[in-house]
Amino acid sequence: MKPLPKAEPGPAADAFSLYDAEEGVIRRTEAMLAGLADTAAGVNALAQAYRRGYREQRRLVRLSDRMQLELQKANQCLAEQRRDLQTLNEALSKEIEHRSRLEAELRRLADTDDLTGALARRRFMEMSVRAWGRHEVEAAPISVMMLDLDRFKLVNDSFGHAAGDAALVACVAACVANLRPTDIIGRTGGEEFAVLLPDTALPAALGIAERLRAAVASASVVTPGGTVVLSVSIGVAEARPGEALEAAMQRADAALYAAKDGGRDRVRSAPEAAGPAADRAVP
Known about the structure:
two-stranded antiparallel sheet; about 65% helix; Alpha-Beta Plaits; alpha/beta; 2 domains; six-stranded mixed sheet
């Protein structure tokens, strides 16, 4: 069988070929336009996302700037508070130091007679009670003496109160110079003093009392009105077994006034038994 002869090209065939070509171009163009639309949509979405990201970034930047500013202000505030606190601490430290000095001075004034430097009566009794308690526990001897400046009112009346104050100061200074570090001296009245002598029996206490009497007798006070010669009367008592401090002080006080009645400027001891106070030989 013979093959069909090919159709010879002609105007109709050329027209169809041209149509097919244009149709292909149109389809490709439409496809390209559709692709461009998709691309545009993607670009638009990307642009929207970028704008959102940019706005968020700007927001975060502004937030970060605000936080940094607030943090800087907070740091400045903390620094100012730290400086204020340091100033306050320094002021408090100075105030505490001032109060400590004031309290120490108040304690000193409360514990010490401001004129003579002897212990105040309250402090003397506190320290003496503790020493008396040790004496009772250890069964060690202990003695107490009471001293009184002779004719003190006459000194005040004749030479003035300044001379009387100087006489009290001179009396205490003479006593302190002849007492041991363990002895306790206090001012118990206007011109009256008490001395506690730990670990001291009556003979030794009488010896100490005589030293004090002689030291005071050798002291004097020079005033515009003349020289004041001092003397002191002293009563001494050794603790009895089980005797309280106050009871021993009362016996020493009775011996003191017995010394006054005996002529002043002398030492007298309280009797160990009931009866009048008696002079004792001084070792």
